[in-house]
Amino acid sequence: MGEVGTQIYDLATGCSTNGYDNRTSESVSLVANTSYNGYVSSQYYATEQISIWIDFNDNCVFESSEQVAFQSLNATYLTSFVMVIPAIGSVAKTGIHRMRASVAFYYVPDACSTSFSYGETHDYTVNILNYTPSIPTPPCTAVSVGSNGTLYAASSGITITTYTCKAYSWTSPRTGTITLTFQLHNTPSYWYIDDVSIYNKGVQMLLNGGFESGSASPGWTLSTPYGVCSTPGVINTVSPRTGLYSLQDGSTSCTADQISQSFAVIAGQTYVVSFYIKTGTTGSGISISVTLS
Ligand SMILES: [Ca+2]
Ligand SMILES: [Ca+2]
Question: Which of 33-42, 82-91, 110-119, 126-135 has the highest mean predicted lDDT (pLDDT)?
Fold first, then answer.
């Protein structure tokens, strides 16, 4: 999934002659110094691994410094991987380049190797962008939490009965996938959440942050990690802050239920999280925890 509506969606391509398939007619735009989530499956049950390179210097060689992803595959399932595009500089260059994805059985894939017996290599086209988007100002002042993944937690004294903005500036301690999780409990009323946003520089990391698809999908996962809850979270039109929809969550008879969404992060980069919350009433049976982990 890339920028400005581009993506490479290329499943069930079958086996190609001599294990190579030139698919450079398919292209995707990616921003430098940004990480992306992708998914891959070899449709084969054995232990296999994928590597991806981008020939940033266009010398028709995929140097090890040009590797942007590596992942062991999970049998025939779609396996998610993180692709890290370096900052423009000594390695990454803007413009059109060839991207090579190579899957190998047993061996670590090598961009041009014939040493592995089973596998396949596809070439694609990427357009590396280096725009410096204006950094959006969060809707309320962001509290810096460093690399601490607990953004907000309260179990008493919660009096926010009108939509209230919360914002946090968080620096990722690692490169990979991170999950934003809201755990909610509310007796006798409901939590409402709307307009959830996470910006990395100018790039919005979340899907469906305002719930305007009318459902959790795309992006969000609703779950009950502490067992069955009464009136768990739903996306509905009862009390949106903006648009037509928000999350309404009145989970009772359980510790909490949760709604979460995962996204790709780079170590050392700062992510600005903001959201609006309110509770239908105040009282002692109301708790919330918002984490990145
Ligand atoms: Ca190269
Ligand atoms: Ca909304």
Answer: 82-91
Domain boundaries, the chain: 17-129, 143-292
More confident site: 132 or 122: 122
* Residues 247, 195 contacting (CB under 8 angstroms): no
User: Which residues hold their Cβ within 5 A of ligand 1, which is an ion?
Assistant: 55, 57, 59, 61, 63
- Among all bound ligands, the one having the nearest atom to the CA of 62 is 1
State in Å: Cα 3 to ligand 2 middle. 23
- Best CA proximity match to 210, nearest among 223, 198, 197: 197
Homologous superfamily of the 17-129 domain (CATH): Macroglobulin (MG2) domain (2.60.40.1930)
Nearest partner of 285 among 211, 216, 224, 231, judged by Cα: 231
Q: Which two tokens stand for residue 112?
A: 């041009």
Q: Which ligand lies nearest to the CA atom of residue 97 in the structure?
A: 1
CATH code for the domain defined by 143-292: 2.60.120
- Average pLDDT across the chain, whole number: 88
For residue 30, the cross-strand partners are: 128
- Which residues fall within 8 angstroms of residue 217, CB to CB, at 6 or more apart? 208
How do residues 237-249 score in pLDDT, each as one tens digit? 999 999 999 999 9
Structure confidence at residue 52 (pLDDT): 93
